[in-house]
Fold:
Amino acid sequence: MEENLKNRVILILAVIAVILFVSTISSCGRAIHQRSVWQKEMATRLDLDEKWNKCSEEKNSIDQKLKTISQDFEAEKAAHQAIKKALLQEQLVNQSLKEELQKVTKLKEALEDDLKEALTASKAPKSRK
Structure:
């Protein structure tokens, strides 16, 4: 009986050892799989982090360019406004010169008419003599 009991204990221990061995093997397989998944995830995160940094650098570069272009635009706008004011002043000067020219032309015509009248008046008494 003792021998039978020893055989049963050995058999039970052998079954338990096999079960533990199988569970250890499957646990190792799952651990290897989990490690593989973790490595892929870390590689993906590193790639995304690199892309994020690259995008941030590009954004900063574009922001700097935008700032420079905005400053240039404001300078051009100020220059445009100055030129516009100068053009308006020139137009006003031209208008006033046109008005002065019209006045001078009218005065010239009036003087020419007076001169014609004076000449005709001075010729008229001579022809009566």
Q: What stands out?
A: The longest helix spans residues 2-128. The mean pLDDT is 93. The helical segments are 2-128.
